[in-house]
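Sat 14:20. Reprocessing the chain from the morning session after the first attempt stalled halfway. Input below, unchanged.
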Amino acid sequence: MTLGQILPILLLVVMFYLLVLRPSRARQAKQRATMAQLAPGSRIVTTSGLLGTVTAVDGDEIELEISVGVRVRFVLAAVGRVLDPETASDASDELTSSV
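Finished this time. Tokens:
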């Protein structure tokens, strides 16, 4: 094989890495960091859209309080995002005003 034949293949591999693998790894690292800092009192949204407050973290499971006195358990992977205190109050206000 000559350099002219190898160069396009090498270029495709480098582009695949830069466009697909690298951003995916960065997203996974950010998700792991978010999960590592979960603590009781954190307001979260699950991947299914459920809002709740973390009451306990036990290994790869969390316990959420979704309403006063109503607690459910989720796997840690179900956490979609952690809400800021300002965002959490806005989301709660939207839910109560729409009901």
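The helical segments are 3-36, 85-98.
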